[in-house]
Specification:
The protein is of the alpha/beta class. Helices cover about 40% and strands about 15% of the residues. It has ten helices and ten strands. The strands form three sheets. A five-stranded parallel β-sheet has the order 5-4-6-7-10. It has a three-stranded parallel β-sheet with strand order 2-1-3, sandwiched between helices. Helix 1 runs parallel beside helix 10 and helix 6 packs across helix 7.
């Protein structure tokens, strides 16, 4: 089984070594500031995990938690603007989901592009499309790093991306179109309004999924020897049983038919925090 699996752990470890070396050699003191609003268990688990992992490589993570009734959109904007001006803060994140009275799209544009750890600011998104240096969305960059690590080239391949979010679908589609070695793909983007999804997924030489629907893709929807990069993560709860996480791809159904496949968990998702820290260290050094 191992030779088919595209595991994220060795890539994450490589990125953490990169960060540790940057910090030790350059004498950096990277500081990430994270806002979390509400009591979403998955969000709290994620930001606390960021803090714990950061401590291992001397990265400071400050978590500012608010209850929804404690903070208005205007208050949050003022907090972010203050951090934009603070030279001791190298990166800013606003964890989603946000309460309904706060416009996530508006907040993304308030964060300084130089401190935008998620890569969602319009300036970073525009630079990405123009193939210029910028902060990339972490999950999209994780997919690229996985492809590079395992010597998977998209050159001349038909890549089908299932999902059109600003977090994964759109950025990874653009990154794979880059006029660079191992990119130059022909890309098709599918989404919730695509009729007969399997018509397109069966054409894929490389299939990227990031739609958030558990086990959406099965063996009948792929061709032989496809490479599957599954960026979906979906929580499944069964009465009286342990909560499990699965991808957008039915792993057991597709395993025998594909050439390579990234598992969930243990695949692309396990790389994203290490990329967040890479962004932070790079921004810290530039400043």
């Amino acid at each position: 089984m191992g030779e088919k699996l595209l595991k994220g752990k060795p890539i994450a470890e490589k990125n953490m070594r990169y960060c540790l070396e940057k910090i030790e050699v350059s004498g950096l003191s990277p500081h990430l500031y994270v806002f979390i609003i509400g009591n979403d268990p998955a969000s709290e688990y994620y930001v606390n995990s960021i803090k714990k992992q950061g401590q291992k490589i001397n990265i400071r993570v400050t978590i500012q938690k608010f209850f929804p009734e404690e903070i208005s959109e205007e208050n949050l904007i003022e907090n972010i603007k203050s951090l934009n001006k603070n030279p001791d803060i190298n990166g800013i994140m606003v964890q989603k989901p946000l309460p309904i009275h706060i416009d996530a799209g508006k907040i993304e544009q308030i964060i300084s592009p130089e401190k935008d750890m998620d890569g969602f600011h319009a300036i970073n998104a525009g630079l990405l499309i123009q193939e210029k240096e910028c902060i990339l969305p972490c999950t999209a960059q994780a997919i690229i790093e996985m492809m590079d690590f395992y010597n998977i080239s998209a050159e001349g391949k038909h890549v089908v991306v299932v999902g059109r979010s600003n977090v994964v679908g759109k950025p990874i589609a653009n990154l794979l179109l880059y006029k660079q070695k191992n990119r130059n793909a022909t890309v098709t983007i599918c989404h919730s309004r695509t009729p007969d999804l399997s018509k397109f997924t069966r054409q894929a030489d490389i299939l990227v999924t990031a739609v958030g629907v558990a086990n959406l893709i099965d063996a009948s929807m792929i061709k032989d020897n496809v490479i599957i990069l599954d960026a979906g993560i979906n929580e499944i709860k069964k009465t009286g049983e342990k909560t499990v996480y699965v991808g957008d791809v039915n792993f057991d159904s597709c395993f025998d038919k594909c050439q390579f496949i990234s598992p969930v968990p243990g695949g692309i998702g396990s790389i994203t925090t290490s990329i967040l820290f890479k962004h932070l260290c790079d921004c810290s050094k530039k400043r």
